[in-house]
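Narrative of accomplishments. A recurring question from our advisory board has been how the design workflow behaves on a single, concrete structure rather than in aggregate. To address it, we present the structure tokens for one chain from the evaluation set, followed by the sequence designed for it. No filtering or post-editing was applied between the two.
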């Protein structure tokens, strides 16, 4: 794969901006949406007699004690007088209001996964965390919970917090690491040495967590291929069960605080590609499985098992084992998919607060999928999760003739076949080991909406 670096056109292609398809259509296609549309979709779900409705839940806690300079998330500063308990009350009120609205004869929502992210939810005390979970469990059935993950900043990790997470059924903690190099950490305003990370990891293991994720970022200022390779070697020694390796998005027009980073040298496009490829090699040589675009997991981890068994799904959380038919997001910017509808809460804390206090859904933005979108979403997610597309599967699920419906796309894929990125057979499309590095680009061939207009980056 390092051959990729010898071809400047491939480096440019790898670096090309574009969607990562955590939804299809991607967020750049979404528009203003009235909360009533969500209630209409609830009616439709009940009318189709869905019965049990397995849902994933994302809880967004937006507060952080300090803003990291690279941050692209929706965050609020937690100052000494910030009323975190007041925010938790709002979040609980939003969750219970949603499930009260969803209550309809013939519809039984069950939560199979919870992801508590942010922000920095690990700044919550065990008592605050327990209060949040009490509120959620009063609102909806958690008896079928199969996975519950909590994002942890190593700087606010503590044994008592891990014990509280475990006691409420949490199965995984996800540490935000990004880079372990001291120069890079100083540049990005997020300093935690490897001893602190190791102590957090050991405390989590002692509390009984046997699935631990590290979030890493490449493309940050002051990173070099050598420094990042050393960081990845250190990560491998620490031995998390999963790693998510994302590319840093420098969008100072959306996140003004990122402008501070411009005084530091950034890695070149070639270096970013070099870092990603080298990291893939390091993780796989260490025995981890490369899942999807940018996830790595030990062979015994549920993510690697789901990938190898063909039971992976793609959603706002990334790649996850397939356990739910929809996902409901709460908190500012909480993002949901319910039936054919994607929707997102307001990211403005004041607007979010006003809506929840007035017992309105804080929804502002979304997209209702057409039948064509649903077919294309299925094609794109199948390619992302399985790296192979059996035409008969899509034909059976959507009652269509694949070669007829996608004649233009199959023609366009010949260009990818010439590059040995895909193998086009009469009944299937197979992504090659080289093509795996261009998965999201190959998916773009099926993105009708993107083909019709230029892609633009939209802040979360
Ligand atoms: S801890 Fe995470 S969410 Fe908070 S400022 Fe840093 S990067 Fe952003």
């Amino acid at each position: 794969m390092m051959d990729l670096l010898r071809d400047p056109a491939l480096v440019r292609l790898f670096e090309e901006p574009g969607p990562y398809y955590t939804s299809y259509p991607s967020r750049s296609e979404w528009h203003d949406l009235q909360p009533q549309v969500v209630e209409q979709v609830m009616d439709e779900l009940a009318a189709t007699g869905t019965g049990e409705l397995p849902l994933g839940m994302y809880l967004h806690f937006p507060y952080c004690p300090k803003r990291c300079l690279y941050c692209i998330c929706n965050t609020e500063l937690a100052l000494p007088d910030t009323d975190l308990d007041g925010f938790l009350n709002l979040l609980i009120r939003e969750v219970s209001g949603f499930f009260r609205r969803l209550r309809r004869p013939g519809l039984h929502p069950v939560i199979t996964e919870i992801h508590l992210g942010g922000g920095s939810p690990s700044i919550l005390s065990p008592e605050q965390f327990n209060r949040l979970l009490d509120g959620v469990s009063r609102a909806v059935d958690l008896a079928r919970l199969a996975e519950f993950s909590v994002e942890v900043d190593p700087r606010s990790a503590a044994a008592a917090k891990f014990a509280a997470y475990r006691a409420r059924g949490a199965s995984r903690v996800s540490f935000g690491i990004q880079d372990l190099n001291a120069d890079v950490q100083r540049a990005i305003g997020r300093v935690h040495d490897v001893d602190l990370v190791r102590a957090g990891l050991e405390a989590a293991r002692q509390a009984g967590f046997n699935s631990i994720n590290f979030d890493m970022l490449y493309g940050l200022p002051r990173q070099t291929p050598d420094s990042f390779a050393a960081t990845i070697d250190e990560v491998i020694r620490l031995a998390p069960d999963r790693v998510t390796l994302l590319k840093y998005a420098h969008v100072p027009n959306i996140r003004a605080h990122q402008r501070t980073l411009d005084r530091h040298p950034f890695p070149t496009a070639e270096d970013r590609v070099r870092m990603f490829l080298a990291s893939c090699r390091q993780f796989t040589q260490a025995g981890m499985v490369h899942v999807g675009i940018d996830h790595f997991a030990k062979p015994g981890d549920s993510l690697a098992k789901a990938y190898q068994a063909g039971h992976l799904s793609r959603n706002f959380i990334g790649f996850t084992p397939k356990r739910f038919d929809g996902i409901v997001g709460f908190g500012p910017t909480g993002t949901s998919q319910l039936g054919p509808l994607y929707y997102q809460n307001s990211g403005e804390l004041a607007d979010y607060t006003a809506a929840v206090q007035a017992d309105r859904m804080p929804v502002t933005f979304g997209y209702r999928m057409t039948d064509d979108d649903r077919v294309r979403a299925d094609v794109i997610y199948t390619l992302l999760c399985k790296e192979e597309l059996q035409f008969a599967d899509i034909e059976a699920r959507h009652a269509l003739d694949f070669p007829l419906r996608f004649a233009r796309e199959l023609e366009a894929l010949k260009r990818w076949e010439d590059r040995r990125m895909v193998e086009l057979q009469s009944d299937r499309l197979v992504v090659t080991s080289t093509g795996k590095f261009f998965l999201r680009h190959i998916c773009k061939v099926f993105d009708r909406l993107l083909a019709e207009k230029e892609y633009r980056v939209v802040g979360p």
